[in-house]
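Input (structure):
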């Protein structure tokens, strides 16, 4: 029989927020939700169940038997566990000192097929090597949308030598390649890295397609481990859509039309690298706006009991279906094709060979610039973030680039709001555009005269520091007409691998600030989610002041893992309140994982040196 929650309260809080299981704390015979960890909240989407009966979630709850178990455990006062095909559901009673059931703890652990623990063997080392040398991001170009996926071989097979590369070349061209090194293990991964470096160098120097293939062939002839490598190399002229390509022992490219029609490009004969007499055929084609070219390795089209031709046909049908039902616009096509191709490859079993897909969609050469003007008021920061977020979301950037750009723009706008105008009525202008080599150019301007900032040594200037650290270039110019902040950053698209997940599209509602407070015997816990900047920082200040009331000496633990944006205004509240609490003999602990937006900003700004910042509770 269970007893009331005991032990280290920090462990309880950690279970609620960080355990990889759904955990609900329920009270009374109606099973009112009094606490839910992050996994539990995510499992029911936007439904806020705190203070409500858990039955309101209905079928949204994970675990098909959960609701049926609650009454039985509450009535019988004994723990009940049920093994389901994909989850382990456990409900245990909370019993007071008089052996009366007062509530329940419900836990759902989603099961997955996991290999048994093993030491770091050749497979793991090779996979680490492979993921390290594959590109982690793809260029973001105005008239091209692209995506890539890499799925390593199954756990019982040594990681192979699949590789790919995308290189913006001089003269408005784009170089594409997918290759497969013969063999497996660390050596194959190392050879793959060398081949990829050769391709990148030749393409960056503007070499012709024949030069690139000959350089690969020359290296393979001198390196026995590279002999027999297969490649498909293509060069696309971004101005007119002309395509030159060559396959060396590799499956031919696939083209998917804007209407879903597909064609497999004619395959010039050519043996794998280091074989043959050194003279090989090249072919030409033209890609029109709306068409997508797909390069892939043989692991992406090999199917048990099917020929490789049949596998290519299945991939073509899969891509065609994506185009025909696509409802998210052409800029999302490449990503959708790769995601569907990945699902086709997995198809319920781990592949016995690496698999790679690289999809490139030709678009009309337009990414409309973002131009907006807002009143110089802190309340308008939310409008700036949401409008900017919509524009950036269409570009489908890597999460770290998206966060960096949003942070820098909000900081620049905040500076104009705080410094430019002594009287109400001023405006701040934001302009953003993408150039033809994948760089974002951003300009934030005002027409006021900057006032001298408040004298606060040790804090002022952190916003400027964050902008300089987050962007590739940043310039501030003040004239008699006003102040202009110019910023530039080369941005990338994410690459999906079997070891990583692409961050989902941002939900605007997630930016709304929410602060949840929970009192435990050893600490007051404040969990913050949403955007924390000049428009919302005052709410955090109020919450911290409220938590410090009543003469309690308990530490205050502030959890920032779910903060989507942390600006200098939020940092200022953290440093001010941390110092104030310290002067009063209170402790403020800040929890933010290093890879979270808040953790990244705390590190860049140096505020992690001023506060007790921890990576976990």
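Output (sequence):
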């Amino acid at each position: 029989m269970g007893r009331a929650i005991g032990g280290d309260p920090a462990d309880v809080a950690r279970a609620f927020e960080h355990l990889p299981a759904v955990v609900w704390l329920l009270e009374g015979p109606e099973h009112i939700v009094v606490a839910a960890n992050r996994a539990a909240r995510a499992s029911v989407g936007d439904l806020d169940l705190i203070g409500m009966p858990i039955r309101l979630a209905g079928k949204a709850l994970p675990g098909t038997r959960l609701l049926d178990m609650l009454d039985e455990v509450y009535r019988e006062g004994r723990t009940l566990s049920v093994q389901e095909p994909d989850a382990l559901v456990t409900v245990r009673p909370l019993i007071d000192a008089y052996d009366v059931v007062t509530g329940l703890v419900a836990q759902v652990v989603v099961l997955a097929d996991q290999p048994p623990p093993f030491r770091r063997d050749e497979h793991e080392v090779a996979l680490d090597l492979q993921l390290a040398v594959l590109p982690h991001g793809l260029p973001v170009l105005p008239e091209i949308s692209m995506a890539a996926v890499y799925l390593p071989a199954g756990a019982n097979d040594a990681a192979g030598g699949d590789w790919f590369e995308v290189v913006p070349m001089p003269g408005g061209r784009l170089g594409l390649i997918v290759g497969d090194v013969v063999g497996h293990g660390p050596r194959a991964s190392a050879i793959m890295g060398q081949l990829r470096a050769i391709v990148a160098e030749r393409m960056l120097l503007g070499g012709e397609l024949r030069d690139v293939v000959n350089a690969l062939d020359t290296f393979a002839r001198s390196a026995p481990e590279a002999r027999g490598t297969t490649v498909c190399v293509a060069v696309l002229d971004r101005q007119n859509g002309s395509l030159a390509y060559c396959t060396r022992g590799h499956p031919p490219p696939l083209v998917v039309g804007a209407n879903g029609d597909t064609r497999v490009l004619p395959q010039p004969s050519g043996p794998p690298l280091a074989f043959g007499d050194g003279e090989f055929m090249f072919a030409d084609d033209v890609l029109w706006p709306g068409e997508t070219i797909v390069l892939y390795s043989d692991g992406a089209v090999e199917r048990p009991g099917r020929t490789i031709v049949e596998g290519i046909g299945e991939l073509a049908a899969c891509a065609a279906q994506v185009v025909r039902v696509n409802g998210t616009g052409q800029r999302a096509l490449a990503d959708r094709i790769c995601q569907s191709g990945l699902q086709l490859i997995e198809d319920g079993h781990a592949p016995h060979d690496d698999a790679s897909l690289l999809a490139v969609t030709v678009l009309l050469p337009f990414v409309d610039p973002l131009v907006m003007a807002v009143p110089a008021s802190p309340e308008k920061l939310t409008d700036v973030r949401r409008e900017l977020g919509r524009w950036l979301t269409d570009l489908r950037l890597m999460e770290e680039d998206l966060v960096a750009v949003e942070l820098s723009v909000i900081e620049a706008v905040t500076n104009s709001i705080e410094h430019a105008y002594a009287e109400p009525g001023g405006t701040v202008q934001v302009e953003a555009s993408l150039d033809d080599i994948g760089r974002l150019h951003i300009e934030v301007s005002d027409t006021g005269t900057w006032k001298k900032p408040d004298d606060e040594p040790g804090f002022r200037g952190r916003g400027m520091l964050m902008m300089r650290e987050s962007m590739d270039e940043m310039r501030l110019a003040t004239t008699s007409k006003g102040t202009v902040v110019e910023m530039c950053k080369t941005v990338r698209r994410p690459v999906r691998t079997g070891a990583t997940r692409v961050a989902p599209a941002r939900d605007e509602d997630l930016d709304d600030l929410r602060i949840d407070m929970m009192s435990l015997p050893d600490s007051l816990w404040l969990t913050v989610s949403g955007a924390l900047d000049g428009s919302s920082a005052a709410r955090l200040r109020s919450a911290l002041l409220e938590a410090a009331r009543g003469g309690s000496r308990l530490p205050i633990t502030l959890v920032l893992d779910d903060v989507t944006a942390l600006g200098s205004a939020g940092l200022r509240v953290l440093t001010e309140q941390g110092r104030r609490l310290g002067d009063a003999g209170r402790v403020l602990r800040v929890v933010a994982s290093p890879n979270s937006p808040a953790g990244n900003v705390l590190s860049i700004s140096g505020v992690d040196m001023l506060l007790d910042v921890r990576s976990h509770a």
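Notes: The chain has 14 helices and 28 strands. Confidence is low (pLDDT under 50) at residues 1-8, 112-120, 455-459, 499-504.
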